[in-house]
Amino acid sequence: MRTICVIGTGYVGLVTGTCLAELGNRVTCVDVIPEKVARLRAGDVPIYEPGLEPLITSNMRAERLQFTTDYAEALAGAEFIFIAVQTPSGDDGAGADMRFVESAARSIAAGLDHSAIIVNKSTMPVGGGDLVSRIVREHLRNPSLDVPVVSNPEFLREGNAVEDFMRPDRVVLGATDQRAAHEVATLYLPLRAPVVSTDLYTAEMIKYASNAFLATKISFINEMARICERLGADVKEVAAGMGYDKRIGRAFLNAGLGYGGSCFPKDVRALIHMAAEAGLHPQMLEAVVAINADQRRLVVDKLREELGDLRGKRIAVLGLAFKDNTDDMRDAPAVDIIHWLLEAGAVVRAYDPVATATAPRAMPGWPIAYCGDVYAAVDGCDGAVVATEWPEFRHLDLPRLHDLMGTPVLVDGRNLLDPREMARLGFRYRGIGRPEAGRPGARQAEDFGDDVGHDRHNASRGGTGNGTMGIHARRSGRGRSDASGGASA
Ligand SMILES: NC(=O)c1ccc[n+]([C@@H]2O[C@H](COP(=O)([O-])OP(=O)(O)OC[C@H]3O[C@@H](n4cnc5c(N)ncnc54)[C@H](O)[C@@H]3O)[C@@H](O)[C@H]2O)c1
Questions:
Q1: For 219, how many CA atoms within 13 A lie in the half-sphere containing its CB?
Q2: Of the CATH numbers 1.10.3210.10, 3.30.565.10, 3.20.20.370, 3.40.50.720, which one belongs to the domain with range 212-461?
Q3: Distance 121 CA to ligand 1 centre (A)
Q4: Tens of pLDDT along 95-115?
Q5: Measuring from atom 31 of ligand 1, which residue has the nearest CA?
Q6: Is the fold of 3-198 the same as that of 212-461?
Q7: What is the model's pTM?
């Protein structure tokens, strides 16, 4: 059992602290927000993260996990001090704002009376480890203490964070003091994950490069989606067909509203900023950002194409969080979409299964009617937008939805629904990168032969993993497999 202090009880700090306690360590989490700490002490988890609450409760009961606002209490006897505070975009919207990290480093230095290893979990620009080291050295009350800094970037996904922490693909540790890195590695031994041991800068860069690559995959498939739409191809099947190739992989090839959340947007911008500061021009990353921004606009454009002027039109936004299984509203596409809808004079109704408390904070005072379920949201609406890939949106009572909507226009920003089924039910359905025969600029299908294309692979057959769409068996090279794919026009 090691003694650990975790600074910050947000999505990363809370998961890190709880999981390290679950691995048998004694963990104290410290945060500067007293209400958050009070809620945690009362067993009330301030974020929605599947599987986290029972782990917090059981580890608190076992007295391996506690929460405080008092640094002295949190640092007492700590062998490892994890920094897990936020590093949002700075005021210029580009580089990372390191003020929270700097403040945490000063508090560590002020409160530490023994040698300990600092572990940087927060995503910090290359050189962040040096910055923490320098601040701690400058402010330590006892300068003879040994306080090495190890970079240990976090790769967890919100919505799957506990599982990701407990079963990481790899643990990255970067340090100038390899003995310190080795000590941190011992904490992760029970996870039996590969450990990538590097210098400090390389570990910091691995985090940015990983996020930038995943964001690039998303913008890549969104660019393909635009091309597919024009040429009459279906990007979902293109992605599935590509994904079987092990060199490519299926993950992060879902065309839709693009990436959002607290990591990809700010990390890609920060990497661009770092490169620019170094005198480089990272053209590909800039294109990734530009494509992502366009993708959100696309949904409103599609609504306009279907409904004309949006003034006075009732639009339901289904899903508000930036992704499913989280209540995190940071940089959620729904916020931009709702902003543009309201700007266009639309009447907005909204529903999200869990982000009902966080959404109004992200859109304070906005005239949005929050509804208790999908059906209440779409009631009497002229259009609906699926903005988050919540699993429940895959299993809607579509005939009921159709009956409730004034004009059954549905823009599926996450490609959750089947265009043929939607057309059959009488919806005016618009997906992202799905065939749109009959639309101006879209290529017209020459062969709608309905004898092809109904042999769908699904997850249980080792298919795409989304369970709804796979590769169609085609008998004719150019034939469209989706007889009603163009019927949504
Ligand atoms: N959220 C994710 O999915 C994710 C994944 C990987 C990496 N990261 C990175 O991890 C870091 C934390 O992200 P997050 O989403 O958990 O942030 P968050 O905003 O949810 O949580 C940060 C917490 O730190 C607290 N805090 C701020 N300054 C403090 C201080 N001086 N002392 C004590 N507590 C302080 C805040 O009050 C807050 O509770 C960021 O650098 C982020 O880029 C996040």
A1: 21
A2: 3.40.50.720
A3: 9
A4: 999 999 999 999 999 999 999
A5: 104
A6: yes
A7: 0.89
